[in-house]
Specification:
Number of strands: 24
Number of helices: 33
Radius of gyration: 28 Å
Strand order of the largest sheet: 7-10-11-4-1-12-13-17-18
CATH architecture of the largest domain: 3-Layer(aba) Sandwich
Bound molecules: 1-deoxy-2-O-phosphono-alpha-D-gluco-hept-2-ulopyranose
Largest sheet: 9 strands, mixed
Strand content: 15-25%
Shape: globular
CATH superfamily of the largest domain: Glycogen Phosphorylase B
C-alpha cells in the first residue's frame, strides 16, 4: 500500500511543472486561458471587466498555491494557532493588495501592457467587499494582513453576508440606503468549500440522559441549518505565508426533515428550508443598539457554532486530550459579538465530550481573550433572557450556571455588597426585561481583556469595567490599534511609496515600518520637499477629478483639502465641523473685499454613512448638503470655500481620499473614541491632523509632537465636569449665531433641523460642541497660518509620515502575539 501511494505521489508530482511562473509570457498565457476557460469569453475579444475577472483568477491560482503550502506546513508543525473571531471584516478590494503582497504587481502590469491593458484600469473594475461597518471591521482586515506578514499561524473566522454594508445614495441631500449585492458578478477571491460544512442547531428543548451512571443534558434542537465554508486566502508581504479567512454561509440543512415532506406540501417544505439562507443574508448596519433582534442573535450563534466545530475538529485530528487545548488554541473575541463562543465551548465540553464542569471551565478560562472597541455603554451588547432561552435553551442554562458559580466566588471575595454583586452579575435583573450582559460574560471568562489605546484602557479601568478591574487588575491590558502600511501606503499611494523607498534607500520599511523614522533627517531638505509636494499634488489632482465626477463641484488644487471621513455619529462631531464651515462662510461674507485675499482657500470634504435608524446622524448629512448648496453657489465666495459630501464612503474611496488630503479632522469629544484608526491612515500619508486629545491621538501626539499637529478641545478628565456645568458655562456668541442661522432656516429646512440645534444648545449639548468651539476655531486658524508657509507645512507633513511607525498593525499584532495569545511565527520555507 505504502509503495503504491509513493508511486502515485511521484507520478502526480511529475505532472506538476513546478510552481506557477511569473514571467510575462506565462502570465499572459494564464490570463488568456482564464478569459477562455473560466470567464468563457473569446480570447480574441473581451472587455475590461472580463479582463479583470481573468486577471484575478490568475492571481487567485497563485494565492491558492501558497495558501495550500502554508496550511500544510502549519499542519505538519502543529504550532499553537490563533483563531480570530470577528463578525465584521472590511476587506475592500483584493487585486492590488494581493499582487503587491505576492511581489508580482510589476510582472502583471508589464504582461498586461503587452496585451494592451492597463493594470490600474482593470483594478478599478473591482467592487468592494464591505462585510463590516467601520473602524472595527477595517481593523480586523488590517490585522489579518499583519498576521500573514508576520508569519503567525492564524485563522480568521467571520460571516459571508450576501448583502454587506448598504450602498449610500443621496437624493436631494437625504441619505437613502440601498442593498449592495456584491456577489452579483462572482467573487474570485473566495473558494467555496462545499465539503467543509457543519450543522448548526437552534430552538428546541433540553433533556436529560444517563451515561455510565452519570446524568447529562442533551439539547434536542427544533431547527437545523448548515454552515458552509468560503475560504479567502490572505497573503503576507515578503513571505510565502498565506493564511485563511474562513467565512460561513448559511444553507438549508442536508438532514431531510421527513415530517414536512410527508405532509404532502412539497413546495412549502422546500421554501421553508430555503429560509435558512436568511441567517447570513445581511450585515446589520451599526446602530449601536441591537438588543432584542432574533436574527442578529441567530447570526452570532451560527458563526460561533460553525467556527468552533471547525476548530475543535482540527484540534481532535492531532490530539486526544483537551487539557492540551490551551497550548494549541487561542481564541480572540472581537468585541462582544462572538461571546456566545464561551457558552458554546462549555456546552461541547460538558454535554458532548463529557468533561466535568470544573475541568471544562478550567480550560475555557485559558483560551479566550477579549478586546472591546468601545466606551459607550449602549454598545455593550445585551441579550434578553427570554430570547436566548427560546433560541438557545441550553446556552441559557450554562450562562446561568457560570454566573451562579461566579457570584458564589465573588461573595467570598467581596462579601455581601449587593449593589456591586448586581453590577458584576452576567444577568441584569433591573429594568422591564431581564438581560444577559455579554460584556460581563466575556470579561469573566477571558484570561485577558484588551483596550484599543492607552486612554481607552484607563477608561475601562476607571469606568466601564471598574468593578472587574479591582477584582482582576492583571487581566486588563491595551494594544493600541494600527493600520497596515501595505494597504494604506503601498497600495493606495504608490508614488509616495516609491519616494519613501528612494530616500530611505530601501523598501525594508514595508515590513519594518519603524524605518520611516529615517525620513526625519530629510524633513527640511529642499529637494526632498519638492518631490514630496509633487507627489501630494498629483494625489490631490486625482481626488479633485473624483470630486468633480461625483458631485459636479470643481475644486482648486491650490486650496487646502480639509477632510473628515468616518461613520456619522454625534460623538465624532461632524456637526462641529459643519458649524465651523458655516462660521468660515459667514466670516468671508462679512469681510472687506481687500481682506479676502488673505483667506486660505479650503475645500472641505465630508464622507460617511449614517446608520439607517439614526435620525440625528441623517440630519447631519442633510445639513451638510444644504450648507454645501448655499456655499458652492455663492459667487462672492468662489474658490475661497467649497464643501463637498462624498457619497457611499467605503475602503476604496478612503484609498483615494486619504493620500489627497492636506488636513484631516478627528474631533470626537474627548473620552468617546476608543482609539480611532483613520487618524493613523492620514498620518502615514503625510496629512496633518486637526484633532482632540482622544483615543489613539494622544499617542500620536507623543510620537510626532503637538507642534506638528493642531490639537484643541477639552481633555478627557475635564469632560464630566464641563458637562455638569451645562448652561452655566460661558456661552460662545459665535456658536450661538451659527446655530441660530441653522434654526431660522438660513439653509432651508427650518423645521427639520430644529432637533439638531436642540442637541447642541444649552444642557442639550452632551458632546460639548459649544465648549470646544472657540478652541476649534483657534486650531483651524493655526492650520491656515501653517498652510501659507508651505515649507513649514511640508516639513510637518514629512514628520507626520516619519513618526507614524508605531501605528502599524504589525506592532499591534506582535504585542498581542506575545502578551495575549502566546503564539510564535511559523514561517513556511521556500
Ligand atoms: C470602533 C471604535 C474606534 C476604534 C475601532 C477599532 C468601534 O470603530 O469606535 O474608536 O478605533 O472600533 O478598534 P468605529 O467607530 O470607527 O466604527
Amino acid at each position: 500500500k505504502a509503495g503504491e501511494r509513493k508511486a502515485k505521489a511521484e507520478r502526480l508530482f511529475g505532472l506538476m511543472d513546478g510552481f506557477l511562473k511569473n514571467d510575462p509570457l506565462s502570465l499572459q498565457t494564464d490570463i488568456l486561458d482564464h478569459v477562455e476557460y473560466t470567464v468563457a469569453r473569446s480570447r480574441f475579444s473581451f472587455d475590461d471587466f472580463e479582463a479583470y475577472q481573468a486577471l484575478s483568477h490568475s492571481v487567485r491560482d497563485r494565492l491558492i498555491e501558497r495558501w495550500h503550502e502554508t496550511q500544510q506546513y502549519f499542519k505538519r508543525k502543529d504550532p499553537k494557532r490563533l483563531y480570530f473571531l470577528s463578525l465584521e471584516f472590511l476587506m475592500g478590494r483584493s487585486l492590488s493588495n494581493s499582487v503587491i503582497n505576492l511581489g508580482i504587481r510589476d510582472h502583471y502590469a508589464d504582461a498586461l501592457k503587452q496585451l494592451g491593458f492597463d493594470f490600474e484600469v482593470l483594478a478599478e473594475q473591482e467592487g468592494d467587499a464591505a462585510l463590516g461597518n467601520g473602524g472595527l471591521a477595517r481593523l480586523s482586515a488590517c490585522q489579518m494582513d499583519s498576521l500573514a506578514t508576520l508569519d503567525f499561524p492564524a485563522w480568521g473566522y467571520g460571516l459571508r453576508y450576501q448583502y454587506g454594508s448598504f450602498r449610500q445614495v443621496i437624493l436631494d441631500g437625504f441619505q437613502h440606503e440601498q442593498p449592495d449585492y456584491w456577489l452579483n458578478f462572482g467573487n474570485p477571491w473566495e473558494i467555496e468549500r462545499v465539503h467543509v460544512s457543519y450543522p448548526v442547531k437552534f430552538y428546541g428543548t433540553v433533556e436529560e440522559d444517563i451515561l455510565n451512571g452519570q446524568k447529562y443534558k442533551i439539547w434536542v434542537p427544533g431547527e437545523m441549518v448548515e454552515a458552509v465554508a468560503y475560504d479567502n486566502p490572505i497573503p503576507g508581504y515578503g513571505t510565502r505565508n498565506t493564511i485563511n479567512l474562513r467565512l460561513w454561509a448559511a444553507k438549508p440543512s442536508g438532514q431531510d426533515d421527513m415530517e414536512s415532506y410527508n405532509t404532502g406540501d412539497y413546495i412549502n417544505a422546500i421554501v421553508n428550508r430555503q429560509k435558512a439562507e436568511t441567517i447570513s443574508c445581511v450585515l446589520y448596519p451599526d446602530d449601536r443598539s441591537y438588543q432584542g433582534k432574533e436574527l442578529r442573535l441567530k447570526q452570532h450563534y451560527f458563526f460561533v457554532s460553525a467556527s468552533l466545530q471547525d476548530i475543535i475538529r482540527r484540534f481532535k485530528e492531532e490530539h486526544n486530550n483537551f487539557e492540551t487545548l490551551p497550548d494549541k488554541v487561542a481564541l480572540q473575541l472581537t468585541d462582544t459579538h462572538p461571546s456566545l463562543a464561551i457558552a458554546e465551548v462549555m456546552r461541547v465540553f460538558v454535554d458532548e465530550e463529557h468533561l466535568s464542569w470544573n475541568r471544562a471551565w478550567d480550560i475555557v478560562c485559558k483560551i479566550f481573550s477579549f478586546t472591546t472597541h468601545t466606551i459607550q455603554p449602549e454598545a455593550l451588547e445585551k441579550i434578553p433572557v427570554d430570547l436566548l432561552g427560546s433560541l438557545l435553551p441550553r446556552h441559557l442554562q450554562i450562562i446561568y450556571d457560570i454566573n451562579c458559580n461566579f457570584m458564589e466566588e465573588l461573595k467570598k471575595k467581596i462579601g455581601l455588597d449587593y449593589s456591586r454583586l448586581s453590577r458584576m452579575s452576567i444577568i441584569e435583573e433591573e429594568g422591564p426585561v431581564k438581560n444577559i450582559r455579554m460584556a460581563n460574560l466575556s470579561v469573566i471568562c477571558s484570561h485577558t481583556v484588551n483596550g484599543v489605546s492607552r486612554i481607552h484602557l484607563e477608561l475601562l479601568k476607571t469606568k466601564v469595567f471598574k468593578d472587574f478591574y479591582e477584582l482582576w487588575p492583571q487581566k486588563f491590558q491595551y494594544k493600541t490599534n494600527g493600520v497596515t502600511q501595505r494597504r494604506w501606503i503601498v497600495v493606495s499611494n504608490p508614488n509616495l511609496c516609491a519616494l519613501i523607498s528612494k530616500w530611505l534607500g530601501t523598501e525594508a520599511w514595508i515590513r519594518n515600518v519603524d524605518l520611516l523614522m529615517g525620513l526625519r533627517e530629510y524633513a527640511a531638505d529642499a529637494d526632498f520637499q519638492q518631490e514630496w509636494k509633487l507627489v501630494r499634488r498629483l494625489n490631490k489632482i486625482r481626488l479633485a477629478e473624483y470630486i468633480e465626477a461625483m458631485s459636479g463641484v470643481k475644486v482648486s488644487i491650490d486650496a487646502m483639502f480639509d477632510v473628515q471621513i468616518k461613520r456619522i455619529h454625534e460623538y465624532k462631531r461632524q456637526l462641529l465641523n459643519l458649524i465651523g464651515i458655516i462660521h468660515r462662510y459667514d466670516c468671508i461674507k462679512n469681510m472687506e473685499k481687500s481682506d479676502r485675499r488673505k483667506v486660505v482657500p479650503r475645500v472641505c470634504i465630508i464622507g460617511g454613512k449614517a446608520a439607517p435608524g439614526y435620525e440625528i446622524a441623517k440630519k447631519i448629512i442633510k445639513l451638510c448638503h444644504a450648507v454645501a448648496e448655499k456655499i458652492n453657489n455663492d459667487p462672492g465666495v468662489g474658490d475661497l470655500l467649497k464643501l463637498v459630501f462624498i457619497p457611499d464612503y467605503n475602503v476604496s474611496v478612503a484609498e483615494l481620499v486619504v493620500p489627497g488630503s492636506d488636513l484631516s479632522q478627528h474631533i470626537s469629544t474627548a473620552g468617546y473614541e476608543a482609539s480611532g484608526t483613520g487618524n493613523m491612515k492620514f498620518l502615514m500619508n503625510g496629512c496633518l491632523l486637526l484633532a482632540t486629545a482622544d483615543g489613539s491621538t494622544v499617542e500620536i501626539i507623543e510620537e510626532i509632537g503637538e507642534e506638528n499637529m493642531f490639537i484643541f478641545g477639552a481633555k478627557v478628565h475635564e469632560v464630566p465636569t464641563l458637562r455638569d456645568k451645562g448652561s452655566a458655562r460661558k456661552p460662545s456668541l459665535q456658536f450661538a449665531r451659527i446655530v441660530r442661522m441653522i434654526r431660522e432656516g438660513y439653509f432651508g429646512f427650518k423645521d427639520y433641523f430644529g432637533s439638531l440645534c436642540d442637541a447642541v444648545e444649552g444642557n442639550g449639548d452632551f458632546y460639548l460642541l459649544e465648549h470646544d468651539f472657540e478652541s476649534y476655531l483657534e486650531a483651524q486658524a493655526s492650520a491656515d497660518k501653517a498652510f501659507v508657509d508651505q515649507k513649514r507645512w511640508t516639513q510637518m507633513s514629512i514628520l507626520s509620515t516619519a513618526g507614524s511607525g508605531k501605528f502599524s498593525t504589525d506592532r499591534t499584532i506582535a504585542e498581542y502575539a506575545e502578551s495575549t495569545w502566546g503564539i510564535e511565527p511559523c514561517k513556511c520555507p521556500f
